[in-house]
């Protein structure tokens, strides 16, 4: 049996072999589920450290991230090293059995670096060089910054590689910095040269004949800095690709330095869900453990399903392996305009939700609430008011609950539905000057996913072009860029009897954001059996759609399209809904093209929620998809409002995010892992509560 601890033995930068960790309770980083958070002892007098550790033990904390922002403490002047405080902290934690995720503090250089070497500071697209005084003030392209960061990583690793407290390495923090300065221009040009080989190729790929942009050499090319009017979309797209790769270079340099200095523990960095600056598909294979920071907005009515989607993404990035929830808030954050807190019950629910969807660790920002600095009102496990608080008691309860979830650690979530998502497509689709800026990749992805969530059906998020065997349903909410390989995979899926559903404005452009020529979707026309000639913004007033009388699963009620529609004709597909009005009147809006037992559905518009749900439910039903309770998905038969149901290995997670008690029928009489109570087949779940059910008692 392979554990994540073994990952350290492998060659840096290669994805560990997929392994099934079944029912052993061996999680990502050792036994059971990790629980803890960011611990910043350098921000506190030494006297508090003993109390911190004592309270951590009381709360069941077993993993803390140390040192993320400690560069100026470790290196107060160039080349100096002050590690004694860190020695003491690691020994103290280890003495109490608390493992450490040791961070390289390279996301926030000390002020002296920018003063001595102004070129280490990033330049924004308006040409403004950003100052120190906050954090993240570094240019990922700066050779001097990278050299200082690497040197620090080497010294940290030399000193602590063998420290028994260190279980994980955490490089930098939330990589996402952009830089448009001169060093970035140099790196960008090198990147372009490697991608295109010659300036003629670049001119061709970018279509620089438009607006007289033809380049004579790579030296003339700039990052997309502030310009009088719209920027070439291909230039923007490549700059985003380059920026993600440049950040990855920073990560790799430190990771490889840590490894070379003798560290054998897994190495990671913290992702940020659907974070625009970084293409996590290209990063995923570079980290040993996928880790993510999640700060859902409690004010959003869709927070629970949107978070579930992010969690499914994290599991998918790691090919199904357990991941780590590295940061979340136990109460309020402090960086929104109006920081509605979540209750400790909600924080508990979201923590269990992460475990349900494959996390083997649940950590928070941060352990002790900051007394000073910009995050003084951000919640923490140990608030300003101390341990005699609701929040701390909530943390203790959560620690105890997570301890009971040991049998779930290492287990897998089995998804039969794949949902396509890719960063370059998202980037290209969000460029300005398109039919409508109201159409958003992420919004469509979330809407489609919500239908699955309401049925208790998990999904893997899939990179276009990846193998689709294993998926009985494949959803393509909005793949604006579609490459031939991805189109081939969809065709193969349908020929293997899968149901594939393709959303509007997909398959529009090639890898360089050039519009594919011919009736669209050019690469999928044969598959979907419809073709189109025009995309258009739809009026504010929803456009009515009429449903075909022959569609057996047609939903009741009135349906409409809004935002964006397409002028389509059927080339053989069944037309299930038609535009009833406006410039597209009489044209197909929803179609299905059967291929043996499989089918390719196509949506030629952004259709209203009920119709979208009906289409996706029909596809799920036709594919025989089951929900986590073991029942086949039935159109119109959603779970009770707000109830989330997920199966992970032997455990069935029931999470009630709704406002009402949820009544449901279980497949058998089960036991709650957290309380060991017997739960009858017909059960009721109060709002804000959760059950983690398995067969048989645990103790
Ligand atoms: C994260 C960051 C933490 C802390 C937290 C506050 O983005 O990594 O250091 O700032 O946000 O929500």
List keywords for this structure.
29% helix, 17 helices, 699 residues, single chain, binds beta-D-galactopyranose, TIM Barrel, nine-stranded parallel sheet, 29 strands, Rossmann fold, alpha/beta, 3 domains, eleven-stranded mixed sheet, Immunoglobulin-like, disordered N terminus
What is the residue-averaged pLDDT? 95
The CA-CA distance between the termini, in Å, is: 25 Å
Low-pLDDT regions = 1-23
Ligands bound to this protein structure: beta-D-galactopyranose
* SS class: alpha/beta
Q: How much strand content do the residues show?
A: 15-25%
**Number of contiguous helices:** 17
CATH class group of the largest domain: Alpha Beta
The CATH architecture of the largest domain would be Alpha-Beta Barrel
CATH topology of the largest domain: TIM Barrel
List how many beta strands DSSP finds.
29
Shape: globular
* Helical residue percent band: 25-40%
- What Rg, in angstroms, do the CA atoms define? 26 Å
Number of domains: 3
